[in-house]
Amino acid sequence: PIPKAESNYTFWAPDGCPNGKQDNYKEALGQCCTLKYVCAQTCGISFQECFDTFWECAERACDKFQQDHRNCLDEAGWNDMRFLLKERREKLVMLNMPKDADICTAFHGLQRGSCDCVPQAEWESKLKARFEDHFREHHPDKVTKKGTFKDKKFWKAWKGKRAELFFKMVMQSKDKLVKNTDFSAEDEQKQMEEHVKNVKRAQEAGEL
Q1: Is 121 exposed, middle or buried (0-12, 13-18, 19+ CB in 10 A)?
Q2: Which residue in 177, 68, 197 sits closest to 133, CA to CA?
Q3: Strand partners of residue 185
Q4: For strand 178-180 and strand 115-116, is the pairing parallel, antiparallel, or unpaired?
Q5: How far apart are CA 205 and CA 208, in angstroms?
Q6: 167: left (phi over 0), alpha (psi -120 to 50) or beta
Q7: CA 20 to CA 77: how far, in whole Å?
Q8: Residue 14: which residues within 8 A CB-CB, separation 6 or more?
Q9: Percent above pLDDT 90 for the chain
Q10: C-alpha 29: how far from its chain's center?
């Protein structure tokens, strides 16, 4: 797969972190949540890369709070890679957390939405062409008049890390490429009903 053309896909992210209750932490962690959602939509990137990116950002953001560092990290935990849907959870309880299978489904869904499938024999050339399209639009000083990379070593230097490169490129131009999206709040009654079901399941399984 290769990233879809800009005309066929728009990256999205909430304005800040959607979950949690402490507004001061949510504002500080806003950039981390943007990184998380954009990363998960970056074609070909790994879940682990996005997980690490989010928590590295959260650690830096929470360092500013000193005595409240732990509370800030707790807030980050309600906005980490387990939460990838366009929804805002008003009430967060441990037994109503996304299941592993649901998290994988959400991540792979984002990947499918942002990728184009191409024949394997054409993958390298089409991937390079897609990157050059991006550079012509956003970094024209880096390409020749023909639209190819000026630095002949650049493409090879990122071999095996091109998804990470594309993620970096999108974030550099996020004001143009990432659309702020309103996240709807889950219906509280629905959340509570789901919570009750989960408690009953845990009791029946002897977990409570």
Answers
A1: exposed
A2: 177
A3: 88
A4: unpaired
A5: 8
A6: alpha
A7: 9
A8: 33, 34, 37, 88, 180, 181, 182, 183
A9: 67
A10: 14
Q: Is the pTM of this model over 0.70?
A: yes
Phi, psi dihedrals of residue 107, rounded to the nearest 5°? -65, -50
Tens-place pLDDT, residues 104-143: 999 999 999 999 999 999 999 999 999 999 999 999 999 9
Task: Please compute, for residue 75, the number of CA atoms within 13 A of its CA located in the half-sphere on the CB side.
Answer: 26
Name residue, tokens 């990363």. Answer: 39
